[in-house]
């Protein structure tokens, strides 16, 4: 496999010779050593994308032909799903079956956007000026800088790469420096599918020395970023240099509201899945559980009993339900938050420590952790921990549940569980969230938009809205 950057249609090492070891978080072994770029590499990649955009070989290609190439990328990803899933599990520690699901979703994302390539034609509008015509068309934005995090490395990249290409842009991709492997592999598939040189460029390296030079570049027209809120704020500031368009997919502290009339078993299953899936390292994790008072004690007992049995381990073993956290540094952060929760007076009902099993000592594991007696003001309830840590609060009425759920700076996603569908729809209508699930948690698909209210972000990915992010709107008026 290539371990280099891809600039102007060539696989290249970092100009200054930088390298980075990529670590398996399950056992701390080095999986690969990849090129690590710097500012010069970022600028070269931007120059390559600028030249390709200005020359127009991709932009001016008929939309259906761009769609065919993007469709072929989706097909190649499907054909390489096992190889890609293996890399993703080695790099992130997530289970192999989750990685396989990710790869299928990723192929679907490319195929979905490919299908939209020639269906976004402009529209004629009724001009109020006699004897004139007026049409509105969509055009590519230009050079796109795409920056992604480590938790869903290739999935988050796909949500950006597919619509950016379909809309006729050129791009520079910068994956997380911790988890670049599947993104590198997919750039090989881009080459195979026939994406012309210079259209899609890949730079590797840290945010400060590489990503920051995409966000403040005068030659980048749009930045699409997925990651933490604090990084998002820096990117917004940097993007002001040339008033770039920006799309930000940031963090969440997602409420999960369980009413007393919910189907108890489904709600327990989903409350566990909501927060402990991928060790809680999910932007839409249901880390903040709100349970209606009459069922609180029974619900907590059932959760604790089942969460105790979640099998941590090697993502490649079939009975493993959850892998490790991504890094030692990230586990330190989770541990700090658990300490904060205890100091704030929340009751530790489960976990709160590393596992003691001998076979888990080399990995960055942390036990599923549950806090009860939480209140809305606590930091453990308000701040994104991004780990296997659940906080539980109670509520007394529909209004109380909505007020507590909305009491956050975030607005990414959340759920409500109840058998009363009219109540569910009322609650969904009042939650300030980009996605609301009713009697389920986590489903998403290429056809539906994804994004956050409030500090969870700006703009949308996926769906038709996810393609529009990568277009400019032009009004052409003709006086006949
Ligand atoms: P992060 O913000 O630390 O890094 C994300 C990316 O930004 C990385 O590629 C990093 O190298 C780069 N970066 C860092 N500093 C930069 C700078 N100054 N300029 C430009 N680029 C810079 O986030 P992370 O720790 O990799 O990921 C976890 C975060 O991502 C969580 O907050 C999570 O909620 C969020 N996330 C959100 C979504 C969503 O859809 N809303 C999805 C996945 C993850």
From TrEMBL:
The active site is at residue 249. Residues 11-476 form the Aldehyde dehydrogenase domain. InterPro entries: Ald_DH/histidinol_DH, Ald_DH_C, Ald_DH_CS_CYS, Ald_DH_CS_GLU, Ald_DH_N, Aldehyde_DH_dom, BADH. It is an enzyme of class 1 (oxidoreductase). Gene3D superfamilies: Aldehyde Dehydrogenase, Chain A, domain 1, Aldehyde Dehydrogenase, Chain A, domain 2. Belongs to the aldehyde dehydrogenase family. This is Betaine-aldehyde dehydrogenase. It comes from Natribacillus halophilus.
């Amino acid at each position: 496999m290539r371990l280099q950057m891809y600039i102007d249609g060539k696989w290249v090492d970092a100009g200054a010779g930088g390298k980075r070891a990529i670590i398996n978080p399950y056992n701390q072994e080095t999986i690969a050593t990849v090129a690590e770029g710097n500012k010069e590499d970022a600028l070269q990649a931007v120059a390559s994308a600028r030249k390709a955009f200005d020359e127009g070989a991709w932009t001016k290609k008929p939309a259906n032909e761009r769609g065919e190439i993007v469709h072929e990328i989706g097909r190649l990803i499907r054909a390489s799903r096992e190889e890609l899933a293996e890399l993703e599990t080695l790099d992130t520690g997530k289970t192999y079956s989750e990685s396989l699901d990710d790869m299928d979703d990723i192929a679907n994302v490319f195929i979905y956007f490919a299908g939209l390539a020639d269906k976004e034609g402009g529209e004629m509008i009724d001009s109020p000026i006699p004897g004139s015509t007026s049409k509105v068309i969509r055009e590519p934005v230009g050079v796109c800088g795409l920056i992604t995090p480590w938790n869903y490395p290739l999935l988050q990249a796909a949500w950006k790469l597919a619509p950016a290409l379909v809309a006729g842009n050129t791009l520079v991709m910068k994956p997380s420096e911790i988890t670049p492997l599947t993104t590198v592999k997919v750039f090989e598939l881009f080459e195979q599918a026939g994406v012309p040189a210079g259209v899609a460029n890949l730079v590797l390296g840290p945010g400060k020395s590489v990503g920051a030079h995409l966000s403040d570049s005068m030659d980048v027209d749009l930045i699409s970023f997925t990651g933490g809120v604090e990084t998002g704020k820096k990117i917004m500031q940097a993007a002001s240099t040339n008033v770039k368009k920006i799309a930000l997919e940031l963090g969440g502290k997602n409420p999960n509201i369980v009413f007393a009339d919910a189907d108890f078993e489904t709600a327990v299953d989903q409350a566990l899945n909501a927060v402990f899936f991928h060790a809680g390292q999910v932007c839409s994790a249901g880390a903040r559980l709100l349970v209606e008072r009459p069922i609180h004690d029974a619900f907590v007992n059932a959760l604790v009993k089942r969460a105790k049995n979640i099998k941590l381990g090697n993502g490649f073993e079939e009975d493993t339900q959850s892998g490790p956290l991504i890094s030692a540094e990230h586990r330190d952060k989770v541990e700090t938050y658990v300490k904060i929760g205890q100091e704030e007076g929340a009751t530790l009902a489960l976990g709160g420590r590393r596992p003691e099993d001998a076979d888990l000592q080399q990995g960055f594991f942390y036990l599923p952790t549950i806090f009860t007696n939480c209140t809305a003001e606590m930091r453990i309830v308000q701040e994104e921990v991004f780990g296997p840590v659940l906080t539980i609060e109670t509520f007394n009425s529909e209004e109380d549940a909505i007020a507590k759920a909305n009491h956050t700076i975030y607005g990414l996603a959340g759920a409500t569980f109840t058998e009363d569908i009219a109540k569910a729809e009322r609650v969904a209508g009042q939650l300030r969230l980009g996605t609301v699930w009713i009697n389920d948690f986590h489903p998403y698909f290429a056809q539906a938009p994804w994004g956050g209210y409030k500090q969870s972000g700006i703009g949308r990915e996926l769906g038709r809205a996810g393609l529009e992010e990568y277009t400019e709107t032009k009004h052409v008026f003709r006086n006949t």
